[in-house]
Amino acid sequence: MPGDPGWLLVSKPLRPPFRDGSTVLVRTLVEGLPRDIEVAYFGDPDAPLRGGGVDHVLAARAMGYAPSIWDKARILGTLASPRQAGRPLHFFFTPNRVTSSVLAGLRRLQPRRPMIQSVMSSDGVERFARWLEPLDAVVVGSDHTRARLVAAGGDDDRLHRIYPGVDVPADPVEDPAGSKRLLYAGDLDEAVADRLIVVAGTLRTPDRAEWRLTIACRPKSPEDATARARLCASLAADIAAGRVDVRAEVDDMDALLRDTSLQLYVAEHVRRKVDVPLVLLEGMARGIGLVALSFAPLDEIFVAADRHDLRVGARVPVGDDAALVAAVTHAMDAPATLLRFGRDARQLVLREFDQPTMIRQYTALYQALCTARAP
């Protein structure tokens, strides 16, 4: 879109460390956009994501996982400034009354200014469906979220499902079974702790003495602290024996994923994550399969795999611990199955969840909205 002022991406500042799913997704979007598409975003002007003067970086300090109202107010205050007034807007913050009021005011003042909202998670989407009305387009990360918004009165014609995309490294893991590690990288709550304790019990047999369970969860809530304390108490002997390790922040997730045989997703929700968790896609892109609970929207990974006749892992009913144990132990005991899961998982990401696919869809949407709103 040469000659256009470029979209202003309204999100948490794009500054390292990139550990939050929403900022990782926005960074991936910026880095993958064609260089003839200029964008502005909040971050460090001395460290643009793309070199060569392509990006316009608005200075903003880093924010935590849950930005305060004042953090958001400083960002939103930029939108009406004369320097940014001509830029189309793409919002990534969770919609709320404040952002809705700002959007409504901007729409009245600038009726031809293109505006998009990306809804990063399906959690509670019904409560803010009406706040999305002033927008030209709403991007959701799953068919499940789209259906829920339509049921809540959303305009289907303005809803666009764009799956999150990840980079696919050229060198996948060649032998997933070799590392003998199960990895759960997700949120912690009491139900998750219960399931992880059950899974840990499968490692106590002599034939699985070399296997380990790594629990890598960012502490983000009091619920996490309670579940973490319970895990550490219940699995104290396993931790001491080296069968289980419980981590918080992981500095090098790529290295951990490459030392993993099988990913687990034993939460029954994605309420603090994008609809299709990026860490799962990153592991799959490296050739690591998945055992997960069956629920929407996570099921869309397996639905997409079925469309391509790929077997990326196994999904089990929520509440069926026996099925969970059976799926995990079957994979642990079958190196060929782990290899098949990993190869098919990587192929699925290449076909449905890679960065170029996401970029093509966003680029097409940007171009369509700018054309539709042109004088």
List the helices and strands and how they pair.
Blueprint: E1 7-14, H1 21-32, E2 39-43, E3 56-59, H2 69-76, E4 89-91, H3 97-109, E5 115-119, E6 137-140, H4 143-151, E7 159-161, E8 181-184, H5 190-201, E9 212-216, H6 222-234, H7 236-241, E10 244-247, H8 253-258, E11 262-265, H9 278-285, E12 289-294, H10 299-307, E13 313-317, H11 321-332, H12 335-352, H13 355-373
Parallel strand pairs: 1-2, 1-4, 2-3, 4-5, 5-6, 6-7, 8-9, 8-11, 9-10, 11-12, 12-13
Helix pairs in contact: 5-6
Kindly describe this structure.
This protein has 375 residues and is α/β, with parallel strands linked by helices. The two termini are 16 Å apart. Strand 4, helix 3 and strand 5 form a beta-alpha-beta unit. The longest helix is centred in the C-terminal third of the chain and has 19 residues. The chain folds into 2 domains: 179 residues, 3-Layer(aba) Sandwich (Rossmann fold); 177 residues, Rossmann fold. Helix 5 runs parallel beside helix 6. A 7-stranded parallel beta sheet has the order 3-2-1-4-5-6-7, sandwiched between helices. A 6-stranded parallel beta sheet has the order 10-9-8-11-12-13.
Quick summary:
With 375 residues, the protein is an alpha/beta fold. It has helices at residues 21-32, 69-76, 97-109, 143-151, 190-201, 222-234, 236-241, 253-258, 278-285, 299-307, 321-332, 335-352, 355-373; strands at 7-14, 39-43, 56-59, 89-91, 115-119, 137-140, 159-161, 181-184, 212-216, 244-247, 262-265, 289-294, 313-317.
